[in-house]
Specification:
Strand content: under 5%
Number of helices: 2
Distance between the termini: 43 Å
Radius of gyration: 18 Å
Largest sheet: none
Order of helices and strands: HH
Structural class: mainly alpha
Number of strands: 0
Length: 72
């Protein structure tokens, strides 16, 4: 089974779409729970992606000899 590559922008769109479904459709408790858990999972994946990206960029800057946050 191939793991689908995570796409940050698509995840944000899915989060927004899920929130719209919650706001507009007044789902029952079971469906609401499912939608909220789906959105939370996507949010956690986005946070992880941002964290990984920050670490990679910091490592890249460290490897160039430029202090992190310094003007280039």
């Amino acid at each position: 089974m191939t793991k689908k590559k995570f796409n940050y922008n698509q995840a944000i769109e899915e989060i927004n779409s899920t929130l719209t479904k919650i706001e507009n459709s007044e789902p029952d408790v079971d469906k609401l729970s499912e939608l909220v858990n789906y959105a939370l999972n996507l949010i956690n994946q986005c946070k992880q992606k941002l964290h990984e990206t920050e670490e990679k960029l910091n490592a890249d800057f460290d490897n160039t000899g430029n202090p992190t946050g310094a003007d280039i």
